[in-house]
Amino acid sequence: MKRFCEGWHRAQNQRYLLRSQLGFSQASTPHRPAVCRGCENYHGIAYGYSRDRRARLICGIHPFGWSGTDLCPDWRGAIEPEFSTATSDDINR
User: Which domain holds residue 41?
Assistant: First the structure.
């Protein structure tokens, strides 16, 4: 079981790397709920063994996605790395 999970995660990581090298920033953007786009809490990975029984975890706060009609109150914008003010010297201290 553990070996299967490790192999699956390794394959997913390889696919992600290939997609990012080809210029795709998000592999599953069309499947992301509109209210979750740009949120750093978004997870979006499906768990389960058979395709018909998999459950997709949207985020840790709302596992099945935000069901309200307005914006999600827990939405947090992802922090862009180019806006970070920390330098490598700050991190190494």
Answer: 32-76
Q: Are residues 42 and 58 in the same domain?
A: yes
Residue ranges in the chain assigned as alpha helix (H):
2-21, 88-92
pLDDT tens-place string over residues 49-65: 877 788 888 898 999 88
Strand boundaries in the chain, DSSP class E:
42-47, 55-59
Global confidence as pTM: 0.46
Q: Are 72 and 35 in contact (CB under 8 A)?
A: yes
Structure-derived torsion over alpha carbons of residues 70, 63, 6, 8, reported in degrees to the nearest 10? -60
Give the separation between CA 28 and CA 50, rounded to whole angstroms: 19
Count of domains for the chain: 2
Same domain, 47 and 22: no
By three-state DSSP, how is residue 65 classified? coil
